[in-house]
Each structure stands twice: as C-alpha cells, then as structure tokens.
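forwarding from the other thread:

> can someone predict this with DTB?

sure thing
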Amino acid sequence: MSVLPRHDWHNHEIDALFQLPFNDLLFQAHSTHRLHFDPNAVQISTLLSIKTGACPEDCKYCSQSGHYNTELEKEKLLAVEKVLEEAQRAKANGASRFCMGAAWKHPSRKDFPAVLAMVKGVRRLGLETCMTLGQLDQEQTQALAEAGLDYYNHNIDTSREYYDKIITTRKFEERLDTLAHVREAGIKVCSGGIVGMGESARDRSGFLRELANLPQHPHSVPINNLVKIKGTPLENVADLDPFDFVRMIAVARILMPKSHVRLSAGREQMNDQMQALCFFAGANSIFYGDKLLTTSNPLANDDMALFARLGIHPEVRDSSSPEFAAVPESANLPVYYDATATH
Ligand code: SAM
Ligand code: DTB
Ligand code: SF4
C-alpha cells in the first residue's frame, strides 16, 4: 500500500477503492489514518454566518440563495464587535478555529475593511481564523493573507461533470482559480463538497479526484451530507445510503492522507454509531456548536458526551499550524470532558 501523497489519481483507481468490500476499504482507510494522525483526536471548528441570505448565486442546495423562497431570515453584514463576541464564546467552549461565512458571490470593496478587521480581531483572541466569502481576486487574497487569515474555505462541491446541474451562476473553473489565488498567497486551503445531491457514484469519485489532484492537497476537506432545505430544488432528493457516505470519508482519507477530513453538515441526521464509523474511516474534524450557518448542528454537550464515550479528545495542536494550541488553556470544556485523561 502506497502512503506517499499522490496527485495523479485516475478515475478507475478511485472507482476501484469505492468498490472494495466495506471492511477492506475501512481497514485501508483506518490504517492510512493512523500513519499520520492521532486516531483519537478530532479537530473542532465553530461556524458563524456573518452575512446571511439574499445570495445572487443559484446553488440548488442552499437556504441562502436569493433564487429560492426558503423562508430564511436575511441579515446584513454583522458588526465587527458582534463577531468578536461570538468568537470569544466559541473559544470559551473549546473551539480551536473560528470560521466566518458570508452569502456573497464575492466580497465588495465597501465590506472588505470590516472583513479584515474581523480576521485580525479573531486572531488576536488566539483562535485560528477561517473565512468563506465566495470568489476572491488576487488583491483581496493578498490583503486577507496580510491580515493573518489562516484558512479559506471554498468548496468545489461536486464533480466537474455534475457541477452545472447544481450551480449555473458560476463555473467550476472559477472555483479552481480562487483556490489557486488562496494557495499562492500562502493561506491554507479548505475545500470539499456535498454528497447526497442525486449525483452518481462516478461523480463522487470524480469530485474526490479533483481535490486529490490539486497541486497541494487541501489542508481541510469538508464532506457535507446534504441538509435538505424546504423551498430549494433539492428538497426532495433521495437520501444517500449511509454506507456510501462512510465510503466517501474513507476514500477521501486514502487519497489525501495528511489532510483533515471534516465530517461537516448533516451530522444532526446521523446517529452516534454512524458518526463513530466516520471517525474510524478517517474523519478527524467536525463543526462544533449548536448552529452551522443557517441550519442546526448537534448540541455541543452531545458532541462532548459522544467524544467521551468513544475516548476521543479535541485535537490539542493542529500539526499543520504549530503556532496555535487547538484547545486554549482557558477553554471551559463541559465538566464530563476530562482533559487530563490519557486516551
Ligand atoms: N457563499 C460561500 C460559498 O459558497 O463559497 C460560502 C458559504 S457556503 C454556505 C459553504 C458551503 O456550505 C457550500 O459550498 C456547500 O458545500 C455547503 N452547504 C451549503 N448549504 C448546504 C446544505 N444545505 N447541505 C450541505 N452542505 C451545504
Ligand atoms: C462547509 O463545507 N460546510 C460549512 C462550511 N463549509 C462553511 C457550511 C455548512 C452549511 C450547512 C447549511 C447551513 O447551515 O446553511
Ligand atoms: Fe450563496 Fe454560498 Fe449559498 Fe451558493 S452556497 S447560494 S454561494 S451562500
């Protein structure tokens, strides 16, 4: 079994991984995972929507697209102080990274100074910063890098072939251009996508192939299970077989052995056993906190209780960013989480 990261995957090789018997695939994924990570550590990030709804893009899965009537309460860009208050709360609850998301096609000149102030302020609190603001040009990316932004989230969402069945207001290639700006500015890339949108098995392998064949593997790879939103074109799409979701995590782990694979949206619809299987398959990051951007997430206390039952601890140091301690010393973790326990 090769463990050197590769960037030259072919579809047929990835299809072959997906077609392995479930136990063989999980064994290979878990073995890969143990070579690069503490198998009992999971990185935790907290999300905040800093600008909500009325988005000009037509992503068929999204509650925030202005093209669909999803009964979402829209909100203008939050004040910097409000964002810093939320970041402080996330830190006190034990998150190591604070991710700020805006429903924009791209940030405007007018809003950009506030965005930079948010990055600087959140960083000053001792948290890693992540932003997801849509398309960026080189100048904006450079300014974010200078402000100290650690991660930029920009998902490719699905395969190149399925992309225009899901989004028509932008092109797959434009997503890759923004990812290139981010990489070139030295900001760490967070990029993944969604499954359960009616895509084929070949689309799922094509989606992972695109990520794995980027010049550098993304530092974080969020794998979202579609949260079906009333009013969007995907509200009634058929559920993905849960084992296919686990296979997706396992194949992502094998293709991108050193990346954090994030078990992202859709955890609320998963039971504890399913999440445990995902951690075994190589997921080592979650969104933590009662809300994602506009939809709900498992309660933080329930996550800590699950961690305790599984002997999992929040990742103490992200190996890719040694300057940050992932669980700040001041973190006020729930009482039943014993940070001194050896796992
Ligand atoms: N507007 C920015 C953009 O699209 O790049 C950032 C925010 S957007 C909400 C971030 C990602 O969340 C999307 O790319 C998609 O992968 C994921 N997402 C959005 N709605 C979702 C849903 N209903 N279910 C699962 N994932 C979703
Ligand atoms: C990602 O891949 N998933 C997060 C984050 N990146 C920004 C967002 C999930 C959103 C789920 C639907 C919602 O809450 O609106
Ligand atoms: Fe807008 Fe992002 Fe939602 Fe697409 S996913 S509609 S770009 S907020």
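Residues 165 and 324 are 40 Å apart (CA to CA). thats all i got for now
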